[in-house]
């Protein structure tokens, strides 16, 4: 592993996106714009079910002739058109089959002759062979071959052989529609191969025939097989042999296309087919969600009717009954409205093709559209900081995307592709050259097989999702109603009223007016009490089988629902980098790591679940399970409310806190409801959690509701599905883990074991009588996990042999402020390493308690001086209050961020008045930041270096864009012509910070000054960002986010390395970022792996590699001098002077008049200023000369027009300026035209490393503990 990480990492380097008003062929190749993406989506929708093939053909022809064809058109799109043309000739429009077949053969011949951007594949030839069988001159429906350019079978087979395409793949293609057609293709190709004397093809077709006529291996091998259905062999009258169709020797197993495809899946992928039992269940789980939801709601409505409750007596008070009524009304409404939309759009001119909704609304049945709309709106309730509702834009986007995903899922299910099993480790290991190549070869083979077997489907743009979502939500809001009843107190009369179930309104969030969709209070109230199974979706549930291995950036996870390996943050640039890194084979270990995490089997802890269910059904508040009815009393309005402004302010503050608490209680109640319903559904199953990652490489389970990365309740409900004997060490680690969960995690290991042994009576009481006993477990920091550990420990100790007890309980190893651990290792910071347990110590260090004690001492001193907030906080400064702020300090947390973190902790304590929390947090945040001070100086040096590099990179411009940056746009009519002309320098600053992790993952920071697009919908005008339209980078955000993102990418790499090594050693593994889980008996082995991978990672010169990558990635990029002079960038560069020597500057020799002075890596501010001055006199003049075409200008790269070797332009000698003049120029007092300096010559050197040796981690007991 050490040698592997020290290799030269392959970088994925793509061009910088262009501003929206610029374009180039290269930019189109990597970054598809939204208008083009819309056209692709229209083609996809029009091809589906042959909705409108002429329109699809028209748009395809337009794209085919455009400069964007190479970027957006691939073989699968061509095959989809071919398939549609042949289908039109076969079934939908047979009267014009000659025209359709002419189009099909013309497109094929164009592909075959290399005139297109796409080449034929196995599916292409399968389609064209099927067309030959159906319409050749000797068929039932003959078409003149010469009239339409039809090729004969010998020509087709020769093309297949020349392209080295397997004929078995052609036969097994998903485009072959029936067993008979597959058999006919085999017969046709076999006859042709014999005539052409292609022996190898004849042999392969014979094996294909045998595979398709054989039976798959049965998992139930010991059970006698049922006799297969046989049919008489085809009789040849010319043979003269007697023929008896009842004779078994003259019967055969009919050819079965599905059997052939499964066999080929085994052969090509070298893997077993998924066992049919659980695979079928998983397919049904993903396949029938909407049908199942419909049937369940229908059944409950029928039950109400049978009980005589269908007249409305319960109709207005049961969530499921409401949903069924809404579905019935909405289904009917959508069916009629979609028909009307389709009719209206038939007469719309082609110029508005991208605004048509008919093709997209027709992709999914109205029945499913209705359920999608209802379920997604119910699921979004309480999201995005909106109580009892959701943001309108988010709701519309989510529903539009759900329709898109359902369409793609239906296509996947219809294709019925054999799913390859999880990629297994190569025999030579993950971290060898041969092992890596083996991983790549197998993944590429599996991906190619999957892609050739799938239909093409285009991605939708945000604009399209909003439009579809708006149509559906508007229809639902018109038909969905509930009946609310209330009692008039004076008369006791019950009054009922039918009200909308959803309504649209506005609210102000952080000073911005925000459109929201709210639920009727009656619906929101029922959601917190009724079961929510009807709102669950299989794309958000655990899986019953191992997830599909990650074969590409968008192929993996769920079997029939499309997922992405990365959670893109509205950034097409991230997606492009990931796609190209995958194509280049740079992500094999990343994919393998995700597969390892997803292949860990889980089960629900039944004992804990039973306790959780009792607490839930009781409606009481307990251990972070919110009560059914909010149990905090509403503040009483004071009598002097109108006369005393201070009293009014206090009341309003407390009332606001109470209202937020009530709304949060409702949202939390719904969240817990989801967890319980999912756990209940999977009680008796072994299940899996497919994983993907964020843009920094941190892995997350895709199912959001019940997973090990969730809260204490989620973790307490989960166990590994596999059990292993505890052993002596495992029993010890189980006790240590229980002590950690109780908050006793800063003692030595022996002290933690003793803590547990001293509380065995409490542990037994908790396990045996969790709700009736003294409830000791509820005092733990993580009560539900503590209860689970108590039950596990009691079961082990009560077993005949505790060491032989089979335990499936996950035990954790957590890093000590993991970000600081990485900083200390990067900088060789001895003091920092000691604070975060990188060194060998007898007891664990606790940096949080250390800072808390320092803060408490300062608060105590202020309290003695009668400082108000100090007196209020004295004695209340705990480790928990300061932990998050200390942890995020080295990530660049601001004072405002620290104040918010501390305010949340103070509110949770409940012993600080609500109206005082904000001001108390402000006081305390200053004290915490002050106490941290220089405690982590080594980390702050690296953080400053990372920040400065990011600032410079985000200000830079690619060399090819320099002329455009210097150009002055023509002023628009009506502008003030006297205003000075502005160049395009700022508009061309499009460079994001990109780096590569040691595992080869390219990380692109997505922070740009996003422009929002206004979209008018039936509900309201919404503003959405267009990820396909890159905007100028946000330099400030790029710089401030780089240090934390870089550290997060390192801890993600460390976790992936650990997961792969644990897989190699046969350990069960799961992780929550810097918390690693395995069986108790495997902790010692995993601990060794954790340390070994950390040492290997930090022995690979991480920062030097980053610097080298920047020098290569941003070679020849230029930074405008005006950008360096602006803001605080020059000051940041000046601050670095404290750590360098000016002797370098003073010892510099005078430049030789024959050689231009190079701008080397800068070590002081004065060097920077001289560099800028030199740039103004040399590089800037050269750029201007080049721009204006002066005769004395020469190229600085390549060769001159005459073929002579290029020379560098030498500027005229200028009088050396004084230091004061140089500083005045840099400060902007002397004006010049925009000039540039090379970025790589401005990047500061890597901070000097300290004396800490990372190998010391091997001796640290408490590095992860």
What would you note in describing this structure?
It is a single chain. By secondary structure, the protein is mainly α. Helices cover 51% and strands 8% of the residues. It is built from 50 helices and 26 strands. The strands form 11 sheets. It has a 3-stranded antiparallel β-sheet. Strands 10-13-14 form a 3-stranded mixed β-sheet. The two termini are 23 Å apart. It comes from Thelephora ganbajun. This is DNA/RNA polymerase.
List the helices and strands and how they pair.
Blueprint: H1 2-5, H2 25-30, H3 34-47, H4 53-64, H5 69-72, H6 75-92, H7 97-112, H8 122-135, H9 145-148, H10 153-162, H11 167-171, H12 179-195, H13 199-213, E1 231-232, E2 251-252, H14 257-269, H15 276-287, H16 289-306, H17 319-345, H18 358-361, H19 366-380, E3 389-391, H20 392-415, H21 433-453, H22 462-479, E4 481-487, E5 494-500, E6 502-509, E7 512-519, H23 521-527, E8 548-552, E9 555-557, E10 566-567, H24 572-583, H25 588-598, E11 601-604, H26 606-618, H27 645-681, E12 687-688, E13 691-694, E14 699-701, H28 712-716, E15 718-720, E16 724-725, H29 727-741, H30 749-758, H31 760-768, H32 783-798, E17 806-807, E18 810-814, H33 818-827, H34 830-835, H35 847-864, H36 868-873, H37 879-889, H38 895-909, H39 914-932, H40 937-954, H41 962-966, E19 994-996, E20 1002-1004, E21 1012-1016, E22 1021-1025, H42 1035-1064, E23 1070-1072, E24 1075-1079, H43 1083-1098, H44 1102-1113, E25 1118-1120, H45 1121-1125, H46 1129-1135, H47 1143-1146, H48 1165-1177, H49 1179-1188, H50 1219-1226, E26 1236-1238
Helix pairs in contact: 3-4, 6-7, 6-8, 12-13, 13-14, 16-17, 16-19, 17-19, 17-22, 19-20, 19-22, 20-22, 25-42, 26-27, 29-30, 29-32, 31-32, 33-40, 33-42, 35-37, 35-39, 37-38, 37-39, 38-39, 40-42, 42-43, 48-50
């Amino acid at each position: 592993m050490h040698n592997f990480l020290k290799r030269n990492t392959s970088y994925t380097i793509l061009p910088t996106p262009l501003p929206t008003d610029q374009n180039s062929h290269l930019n189109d190749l990597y970054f598809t714009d939204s208008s083009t993406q819309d056209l692709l989506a229209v083609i996809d929708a029009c091809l589906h079910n042959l909705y409108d093939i002429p329109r699809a053909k028209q748009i395809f022809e337009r794209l085919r002739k455009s400069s964007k064809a190479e970027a957006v058109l691939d073989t699968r799109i061509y095959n989809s058109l071919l398939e549609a043309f042949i289908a039109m000739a076969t079934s939908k429009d047979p009267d014009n089959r000659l025209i359709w077949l002419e189009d099909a053969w013309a497109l094929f011949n164009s592909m075959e002759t290399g005139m297109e951007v796409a080449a034929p594949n196995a599916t292409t030839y399968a389609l064209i062979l099927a067309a030959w069988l159906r319409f050749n001159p000797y068929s039932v429906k003959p078409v003149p071959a010469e009239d339409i350019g039809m090729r004969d079978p010998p020509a087709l087979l020769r093309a297949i052989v020349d392209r080295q395409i397997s004929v078995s793949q052609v036969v097994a293609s998903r485009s072959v529609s029936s067993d008979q057609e597959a058999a006919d293709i085999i017969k046709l190709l076999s006859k042709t191969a014999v005539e052409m004397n292609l022996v190898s093809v004849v042999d392969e077709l014979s094996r294909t025939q045998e595979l398709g006529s054989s039976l798959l291996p049965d998992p139930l091998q010991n059970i006698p097989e049922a006799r297969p259905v046989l049919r008489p062999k085809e009789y040849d009258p010319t043979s003269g042999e007697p023929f008896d169709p009842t004779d078994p020797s003259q019967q055969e197993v009919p050819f079965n296309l599905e059997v052939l495809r499964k066999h080929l899946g085994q052969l090509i992928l070298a893997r077993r087919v998924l066992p049919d039992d659980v695979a079928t269940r998983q397919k049904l789980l993903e396949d029938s969600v909407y049908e199942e939801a419909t049937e369940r709601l229908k059944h409950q409505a029928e039950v109400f009717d049978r009980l005589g409750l269908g007249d409305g007596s319960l109709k207005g008070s049961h969530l499921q009954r409401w949903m069924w009524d809404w579905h019935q009304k909405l289904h009917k409404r959508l069916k009629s409205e979609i028909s009307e939309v389709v009719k209206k759009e038939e007469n719309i001119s082609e110029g508005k093709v991208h605004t048509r909704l008919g093709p997209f609304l027709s992709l999914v049945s109205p029945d499913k559209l209705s359920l999608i709309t209802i379920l997604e709106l119910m699921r979004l309730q309480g999201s995005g900081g909106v109580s009892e509702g959701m943001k309108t834009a988010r709701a519309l986007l989510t529903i539009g995307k759900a329709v898109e995903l359902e369409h793609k899922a239906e296509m996947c299910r219809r294709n019925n592709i054999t799913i390859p099993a999880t990629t297994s480790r190569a025999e030579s290991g993950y971290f060898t050259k041969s092992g890596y190549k083996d991983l790549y070869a197998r993944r590429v083979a599996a991906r190619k097989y999957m892609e050739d077997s799938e239909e093409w489907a285009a991605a939708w743009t945000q604009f399209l999702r909003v439009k579809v979502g708006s149509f559906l939500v508007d229809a639902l809001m018109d038909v969905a109603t509930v009946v609310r009843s209330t009692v008039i107190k004076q008369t006791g009369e019950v009054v009922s009223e039918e009200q909308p179930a959803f309504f649209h309104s506005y609210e102000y969030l952080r000073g911005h007016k925000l459109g929201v969709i709210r639920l009727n209070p009656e619906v929101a109230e029922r959601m917190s009490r009724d079961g929510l199974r009807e709102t669950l979706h299989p794309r958000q549930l655990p899986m019953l089988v191992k997830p599909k291995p990650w074969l590409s950036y968008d192929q993996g996870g769920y079997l029939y629902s499309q997922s992405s390996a990365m959670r893109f943050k509205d950034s097409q640039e991230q997606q492009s980098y990931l796609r190209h890194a995958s194509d280049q084979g740079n992500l094999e270990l990343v994919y393998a790591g995700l597969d390892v995490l997803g292949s860990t089997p889980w089960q629900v802890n039944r004992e804990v679940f039973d306790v959780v269910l009792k607490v839930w059904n009781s409606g009481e508040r307990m251990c972070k399970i919110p009560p059914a009815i909010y149990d905090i009393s509403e503040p009483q309005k004071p009598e002097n409310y109108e006369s005393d402004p201070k009293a009014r302010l206090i009341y309003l503050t407390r009332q606001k806190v109470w209202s937020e608490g009530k709304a949060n209680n409702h949202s939390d109640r719904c969240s817990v409801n989801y967890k319980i319903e999912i756990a209940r559904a999977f009680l008796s199953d072994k299940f899996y959690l497919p994983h993907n990652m964020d843009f920094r490489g941190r892995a997350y389970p895709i199912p959001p509701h019940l997973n090990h990365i969730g809260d204490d309740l989620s973790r307490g409900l989960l166990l590994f599905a596999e059990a292993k004997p505890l052993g002596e060490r495992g029993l010890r680690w189980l006790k240590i883990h229980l002590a950690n969960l109780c908050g006793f995690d800063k003692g030595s290991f022996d002290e933690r074991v003793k803590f547990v042994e001293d509380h065995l009576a409490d542990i037994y009481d908790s396990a045996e009588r969790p709700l009736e006993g003294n409830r000791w477990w509820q005092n733990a920091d993580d009560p539900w996990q503590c209860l689970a550990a108590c039950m596990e420990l009691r079961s082990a100790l009560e077993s005949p042999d505790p060491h032989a007890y089979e335990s499936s309980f996950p035990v954790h190893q957590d890093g000590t402020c993991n970000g600081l651990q990485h900083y200390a290792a990067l900088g060789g910071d001895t003091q920092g390493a000691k604070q975060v347990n990188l060194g060998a110590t007898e007891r664990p260090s606790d940096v949080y308690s250390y800072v808390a004690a320092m803060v408490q001492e300062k608060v105590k001193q202020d309290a003695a001086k009668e400082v108000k907030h100090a007196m209020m906080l004295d004695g209340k400064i705990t480790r928990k209050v300061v932990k998050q702020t200390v942890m995020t300090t080295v990530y660049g947390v601001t004072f405002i961020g620290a104040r918010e973190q501390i305010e949340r902790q103070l509110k949770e304590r409940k012993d600080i008045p609500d109206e005082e929390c904000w001001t108390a947090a402000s006081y305390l945040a200053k004290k915490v930041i002050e106490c941290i001070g220089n405690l982590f100086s080594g980390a702050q040096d690296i953080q400053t270096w990372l920040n400065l590099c990011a600032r410079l990179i985000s200000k830079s411009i690619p060399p090819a864009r320099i002329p455009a940056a210097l150009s002055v746009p023509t002023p628009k009519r009506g502008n003030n012509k006297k205003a000075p002309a502005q160049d395009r320098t700022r508009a061309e600053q499009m460079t994001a910070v990109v780096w590569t992790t040691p595992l080869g993952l390219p990380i692109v920071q997505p922070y740009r000054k996003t422009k929002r697009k206004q979209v008018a919908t039936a509900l309201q005008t919404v503003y959405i960002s267009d990820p396909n339209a890159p905007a100028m980078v946000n330099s400030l955000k790029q710089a401030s986010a780089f240090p934390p993102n870089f550290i997060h990418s390192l801890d993600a790499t460390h976790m992936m390395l650990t997961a792969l090594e644990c897989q190699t050693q046969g350990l069960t593994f799961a992780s929550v970022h810097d918390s690693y889980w395995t069986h108790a008996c495997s902790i010692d082995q995993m601990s060794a792996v954790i340390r070994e991978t950390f040492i290997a990672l930090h022995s690979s010169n991480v920062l030097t590699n980053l610097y080298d990558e920047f020098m290569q990635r941003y070679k020849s990029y230029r930074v405008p001098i005006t950008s360096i002079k602006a803001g605080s960038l020059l000051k940041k560069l000046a601050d670095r002077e404290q750590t360098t020597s000016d002797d370098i500057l003073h010892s510099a020799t005078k430049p030789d008049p024959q050689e231009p002075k190079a701008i080397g890596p800068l070590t002081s501010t004065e060097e920077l200023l001289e560099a800028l001055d030199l740039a103004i006199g040399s590089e800037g003049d050269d750029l201007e000369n080049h721009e204006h075409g002066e005769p004395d200008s020469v190229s600085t790269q390549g060769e001159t027009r005459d073929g002579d070797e290029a020379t560098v332009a030498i500027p005229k000698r200028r009088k050396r300026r004084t230091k004061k003049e140089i500083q005045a120029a840099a400060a902007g007092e002397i004006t010049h035209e925009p000039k540039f300096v090379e970025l790589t010559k401005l990047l500061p050197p890597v901070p000097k490393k300290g004396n800490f040796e990372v190998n010391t981690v091997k001796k640290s007991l408490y590095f992860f503990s």
